[in-house]
Design goal:
alpha+beta, eight-stranded antiparallel β-sheet
Amino acid sequence: NATQSDSLNSIDCLGSGSNTKALDASTRSGGDIYGAGSTEVVYALGLEFAPDKIDAATAAIAPAAGSCKPTATATTTYADGSEVTFYQLPPKSGSGDIELWTARFGDRLGLAVAGGTPNEPPADVVGRVGDLLIGVLQVDGTFTQTPDGAVTSGSSSASPSSFGSVSESDFAAALGSWPNGWQQRGSKSTSLTLPCAGDWTVGSTFGSGSSLGTNGDQEANGFDSPENARSSVDALAGDLHACAASPATITTVAVPGKAPVTVAVGSGNDARVTWIVQRGASLAYISIPGDTTPPALVSQTVAGLMGDALNHVSSSEAPPPVEQSAPAVGQSGGTSSSSSSSSANVVPKN
């Protein structure tokens, strides 16, 4: 029977048939391997380059992917110039379907390759994983290794983790008929930051995040203590309330059996509705355009989705693919962010 090792070993085309020497010029890198079920495996890698080396490295990516003889490709270009290309690769003995994502953000390149998956991912999942890969490249903590094998100062402690994420379909169902400015589909917006958020994290040790739909944002942070997570909830809510550009009204909504969710409703042209949830030493928020207070049931449902995403954090376990019932186990001690529905849904933040 095929195993995860068979799947990983079968994905050997990227290093053959093309000159990838330019990729060896990275100044920092980070990567991990994950498995699910009996055969599914994902390898993810981030590379950072000097400004005079990034173009050559980028140019080496397409020929390397071409040597795998892809059966389909799709490229997405974001408003800030970042780019993700998806390649559907032909299956090989022991590999099942193979999917490859490559991405560039500034002077950083990312790669995620999945093998042993039972089906090709649908288009929305392809885009979701691309979003996550771009998000990973924006996090300094992704790049933990230098060429000589040294660990950078940001990762001298135990391996940081990352969280699951809220799927767009679940979020849309949670919002129901409540009127708001969130868009599930369309051109991606680059203006997703919270207004006047400031430096609100107290004792944060790692974080992860991604876009939610076209103009929503979801972020999560782990802290060194539940007390610091609670202080950070209060600090973030205070910053949003005091924001001169879009002062927010702050309320708390009880969640049965759980800690309450903090809801910040902004005002003005750039108003956003932000839900903030704490679970132990973890904190998450989701922010979307809007200036009306959501019904309590909406906030409770959104908080439940966020809590589930926070519960996926671990240094040794990743959330399973939707089409796979067995838990996904990080083979080298990492975790992943989940996509909305896919057999290839892991992109790590190291």
